[in-house]
Amino acid sequence: MKHILAFIKSIINSYSVLFFSQNRVLGIILLLVSFFNPISGVAGLACVIISLLVCRALKFHGDDLQMGIYSFNSLLLGIAFGAFYHLNLMFVVWLLTTCVMVTFAAVIISKRLAKSGLPMLSLPFILIFWMVLLAANSIFNTGLQQKSNYLLAEIYTGTGNLAGVEASLALTLPQLISLFFRSLSAVLFLHSIIAGILISVGMFIHSRIAFSLLVISFTASCFLNSITHTYPEGISYYHLGANLMMASVAIGSFFTIPSLRSYLLAVLSIPLGFIMINAFTSFMSVHALPIFSLPFCVVNIGLLYLLLLRKLPGRLQLVPVQHYSPERNLYQFLNHQQRLNDLKYVRLHLPFMGFWTVSQGYNGSITHKDDWAQALDFVITDDEQNTYQYPGILPEHFYCFNKPVLACADGVVEVVVSHIEDNAIGKQNLKENWGNTVVIKHADGLYSKVSHLKKNSIKVKIGEVVKAGHQLGLCGNSGRSPEPHLHFQLQATPYIGSKTLSYPFASYFNKHNGKTQLDAYAIPSEGSLISNAEVNLPLKKAFDFQPGYIVKLKDNNGKTECWEVFKDALAQSYIYCKETSSAAYFINNGSLFYFTSFYGDRQSLLYKFYIAAYKVIFNDTEDLGGSDNFPLQLTNNKGLLWLQDVIAPFYRFINISYQGNVTTQKNSLNITAKQFIVIGDKKTQMAETSIAIDYGNLQSFTININGEHTEVQWNIEK
Amino acid sequence: MEKLPYEKPYIKKLHGGVMNKFGGRSGVQPVKSIDGVLVRTLIENYGSPVFVLSEKQIRKNYRSAYRAFSTRYPKVQFAWSYKTNYLKAVCQIFHQEGSWAEVVSGFEYQKAIGNGIPGNKIIFNGPGKSNDELKTAIENDSLIHIDHFEELNQLLALSEELANKPRVAIRVNMDTGVYPLWDRFGFNYENGEAWTALSKVVDSGKLQLVGLHCHIGTYMLTTDAYGIAANKLCALAFNCQTQLNHKIDYIDMGGGFPSTNTLKGAYLPGQDTVPSVDDFAEVITSTLLNFGFANEDLPTLILESGRVLIDDAGYLLGSVIANKRLSAGKKALIVDFGVNILFTSFWYEHQVSPAQDFMPHTENMAIYGPLCMNIDVIRESINLPLLNPGDHVVVHKVGAYNMTQWMQFITLRPAVVLIDEQQRTHLIRSNETLAYIEEQELVPTHLKNTK
User: Fold this and answer.
1) Model pTM?
2) Which of A145, A216, B67, B229 has the greatest CB tally within 10 Å of its CB?
């Protein structure tokens, strides 16, 4: 039963993927619309089923098959066959043959292009159908009876059954609007207003962004033609729909993150399309071959390749993970940009223990200037902001003197200087201004340096491998240091005296007015009082999900789920729920656990856990917070979200926030969280959750969402 | 010119000494205010005698002690020793600063729970814990420090009945070169008893061994002893890890750090002789860091300091009742507070300062309390200026133990006042009344006053 369902899903996906979607509603609409030409409809459906079966037999399993990537070209072939040829025995024979050919071509071309990170689009269909046309027009007999040797002439004749409604629509609708719908239907080799309307509805349900690009590109194309008069009788339905509008949607919202820049690129693709249509038409007319969607393929692949070749992504971003929805791509991207610093930076810890004060920050007024501006000086202060105990005339009187200095991250010791005498208070050594110093290499082009250490206190040797937190030496008063302090900087080269590099610390506590907050991937400012984040071990242990962790859960309604933790090919961990085929990706960086994305069933317990444990800081200090934002697609107010979708590439007015807090109960820890939807100043609670942890094990969680209360119990198997 | 205070005529033998640059002044200074609040006002508002605690000083002490350890060691936790001073307000100051609770009886345990401390942040020490007390502690997931084999067996028996696996630590006593040995608490290290107890706990599988605890003495004047103790506990923890494959979560070094009070019989004042918290921190943390644990296996360091964190934040204000001349001619001062409320005067030579201006002449005298008991001696010998009845005095560094060991004996116990960081005064324990003392008393019918 499950297999059959999956198979049906993959059939529908083959339809929706034509419009860069995995939306079932759109898929079913397209499936129905394809039957406007019954022969095309049957042929298309048959081709999809055949290519899915062929791929299955050849064991081309996986997501690509499930999403219809290998079968949508066959669909195009089937539809085109029905549109071009009369039904007879040979039609069936050659349809089957070429269907298999297209499938093979799709597998080969998609795999080949995927190596360069490019999509194949409808190239397999174009190539194979050219072969069909060339073969049918050759001197040999294929037995195919061509309806017409020019595709569009055929399409224009229309279909019989719906003529009445169609005709009245054609008369009542303004010219441009009926042109819009007909162009859209031409993608399926139809020319019907009703088909166009249905497809539009499907597209709108699938994506407001994509739909808005359809409208924009349609308007731009017509406008461009009205100026240039490239096509005096108007752009043909097929080129307008399949080449210009689809190209805009693809490059403006599917392959790139929707934004003002991507919209501009989408508009730019239209004149490019004009040139290509004309050029390819005149080129292929020699062989009496229609160009189909070749301009669409070339424009998209070309632009995409160009964007891929850029050294830095800039502000026109390509989609890193394809969600088959421009909205989702956009929201997930924005959310990740905010949250996924763990994948961007080497995790730096503070190079000391306890709370220290930044006595001189980046661009400090004393010595952090010019090439050496991005450095930090640290001292220890007491409540009166003194750095020393009375009388403060010896280095020993200073709180930071003699305190351990640690490696900020794993690495190899590059340089050690430890022979320089500590200064008397008030004296400086300008000759050996950096004093006793350790430089550690953490990655290519990333070195850290600690300076002014105590003479002969350095415990590490050049070439030694150190772990984060390993003691390097003791804070001292050597070099250009009138009073004991610790100098810390990041640099791109291994020398003492290299210029500095701006680089954030992964996470640290920042104490301000007696309140502690956790700063992540930030650079502490001058005067801030900071320490490494303490880790609550039971909390850390509870969220230590290693691959192979299996758990059974049961909620108060008797619903059960079984979760297992896996790692994907890119080494990203996720929890997979077998019952609902849902997956929740997460990162555990040792000081906090957070979910990065969720795929699948929103009714599943896994989704509820995703909401509840969206961000958990491994520390039980109350009111530490753990505030975060969800991607916008989680909004439960559909109408508002659709309104947001339309303008999302430019402006976001909705925000979904997460506010977590760890409280210590009698003998357990509780992570309580509230999820809010924030629109302007209005804050409405979306959910309220609580997770109970005992002895470092997850026990249960409760969630109140959409007026429904769920209690889930843990039951670890292994 | 201001009117000089009245001074009783006196006769003093002249000692012809060498002149020095400090002149003849004794060094005694009047202490007219505490944290900016006048002593006179305090006595007017709260009576005499009265205990005064400085919240500012308590927090300062805690923070500097915590800083001393936390800037040298990555995982440090303080636990407030309840027996030192378990007034609710005092405990809450320490808990606000992040301290856990260290209790040594069911009574103190209930106080900690009452202060809102979660069970898993209470350390339950001491040689006498009843079955019921242990049960409560287990249910609350508290840290139980086992003192003797009877208790270990008691816990094993209890763990059968209860769902929770008790979290326990072993209290270890050892030779640290300081005598007398405190070998009456816990299991001895040198004779192998500690290891036996430890293996028994791990092997039982019913108890969760999370920590090792020692408390090598009180008012320790040498840091070396802590180095030796830390080393021995580390050795136990390390052996436990390598031989029993069980990681110890924490090492509890107990307390025992001295305050700057001067012990009776000490030659030099405490201020000049006792090591600072920094000195102790340096020895303890460097022993732990250098012992050879992997960075992620470093045990949490727990400290149960009491005295050093609060002693100098407490003052006792009192008034002079009378002057006397003893048979041998020595002067004596009678004040309105006795040893029943200033218990520590048995151990320390407390510094006592006049609370008002005085003339520079001082005389050696004894200070006696108001009790009609021969033991009621606050100071046997102290040089003070001449004080008149009704004058106020301030006794320094009385924050530790006095407000827990005091007794209601002959007189009633006085009020305790806290001065907060904004110099506002708060009554945190009101003075006792006759009704309060008699509340628990019952008189059989035939003895009732029938008149």
Assistant:
1) 0.81
2) B229
